[in-house]
Amino acid sequence: MEHLYYREEKLKYVFEVLNLQNKEVAQKLEMSRTMVSNIQSYYQGRLKQYYLYAICNAYNIPMEIFEDQSINTKEQIYTLLKNRNEIFHKNSELIERLKGVWYLYSYPSSPSLATIWETETTIYEDYSVADVHQNRGKLCIGKNQSIILKESSNSKNITSITFDNNRVAYGKFPFSRVSKSNGLNREIFNFGFFSRDRVDLDEAIAILGELKSVQLKIDHNLLERIHNHIEMVG
């Protein structure tokens, strides 16, 4: 059983368990990479309490790891980190497979807009996402599924794209997307698929199948029923 008595040792081990990279932490906390490296070394003597508070708050790390002297083994720290109430986490293996350019195919909200949507989308190593229309967002990786949350550059509405992690390795995999439809600004649910390579549009249509089986628009009557219920309760 390996013991860690110094806070710097504990911090370094936390970085290892959570796969935190000095560059990423430096960018997120607006610190230099050298400082992030130095605060993990007992001999540098640079670790201050406010650094610990900032890092623990940014990455949902229990502060008791550093404040409770009875927590002094790797096993104890590992257990505390793995029992955190956190849905999303870093996954270096999955991000390695996901980073780069993808093409997303689905039907548009209105047939007059296009026969099919092809959206070139780039996933970056820092988990940020941007598409060809300058819509930007973030990739959040869960245990079994992941979700991309993007904000429209124009309407500022949020689009969510969900997919299964275990399908990514195939280079083509399905997703489900919830977004606002163009023009009417109503919720629309679409199934579609990611492709590492650009697909001929006729082939993409063949893969998607019939529109009615992969797209659902919110019933306007539902919005009215909710509004009426609010008025009755109020």
Describe the structure in brief.
The chain is of the alpha+beta class and about 230 residues long. The protein has 10 helices and 9 strands.
Walk me through what this model shows.
The chain has 234 residues and is an alpha+beta fold. It folds into two domains: 7-82; 92-228, Lipocalin. It has helices at 7-18, 22-29, 33-38, 49-59, 64-67, 74-82, 92-98, 201-208, 211-214, 220-233, and strands at residues 100-106, 117-123, 128-131, 136-141, 145-151, 158-164, 172-180, 187-195, 215-217. Strands 1-2-3-4-5-6-7-8 form an eight-stranded antiparallel barrel. The longest helix has 14 residues, at 220-233. The termini are far apart. 16% of the residues are buried. The mean pLDDT is 90.
Topology of helices and strands:
Elements lengths: L6 H12 L3 H8 L3 H6 L10 H11 L4 H4 L6 H9 L9 H7 L1 E7 L10 E7 L4 E4 L4 E6 L3 E7 L6 E7 L7 E9 L6 E9 L5 H8 L2 H4 E3 L2 H14 L1
Helix pairs in contact: 1-6
